[in-house]
Amino acid sequence: MQIAVGSGNPVKREAAARVFAESAVAAEPVPSGVSEQPVGHEETRRGARNRATAALRAGAYDLGVGIEGGVATFGASGAAASEDDDLFLVMWAAVTNGERWGVGAGPSLPLPEPITARVRDGEELGPVMDDVLGKSNVAEKEGAAGAFTDGSMSRTDALDAAVTAAASPFLSDLY
């Protein structure tokens, strides 16, 4: 099976390769169609779906995989989010063969308050993490998930969970 991941980020390709271990997984850098810093579950999920569609169309692939990270609140009892709500790092993935879809989320990690403040002020999480950690390209290495868990969960681990959830209709006969 030929699978395309809609990103040039090696961590995202590796996450998909873990889930589809018996398949050839290629990276296809494609636009997400959402903002550089997706805010909210809806925008983050839409970015994953957009990437999956574009990746599938980028070549002769059987499946397209889209992975998008964003920040979101959960709001009290489904109410509209307020600035008092905690902000979380969220991950969404989508898998499609052009007809069927699977969409799933990965873990949600609370952002530390100093980082939340910067993101709420309009900064993108990736560059904030680079600045806070004094490193470059954190998003292509351990990611915020790795930093927030002191390495207990890498970014690849977190994205693997999202891709696994999204791939479930293609992995199980129960769907």
Note the main attributes of this structure.
6 helices; 19% strand; globular; 175 residues; alpha/beta; Maf protein
Chain-wise SSE layout:
Blueprint: E1 2-5, H1 10-19, E2 24-27, H2 41-57, E3 63-72, E4 88-96, E5 101-105, E6 109-110, H3 113-120, H4 125-133, H5 143-148, H6 155-171
Parallel strand pairs: 1-2, 1-3
Antiparallel strand pairs: 3-4, 4-5, 4-6
Helix pairs in contact: 1-6
Number of helices, counting only DSSP H or I runs of 4 residues or more? 6
Note the run of SSEs as H and E. Answer: EHEHEEEEHHHH
CATH class: Alpha Beta
Helical proportion, percent range: 25-40%
Total domains: 1
Largest sheet: 6 strands, mixed
Radius of gyration: 16 Å
User: What is the name of the CATH topology?
Assistant: Maf protein
- Low-confidence stretches are none
If classified by CATH, what would the architecture be? Alpha-Beta Complex
Strand proportion, as a percent range, falls in 15-25%
Distance between the termini: 19 Å
- Molecular shape: globular
Average of per-residue pLDDT values: 93
> Structural class, please?
alpha/beta
Count of individual beta strands: 6
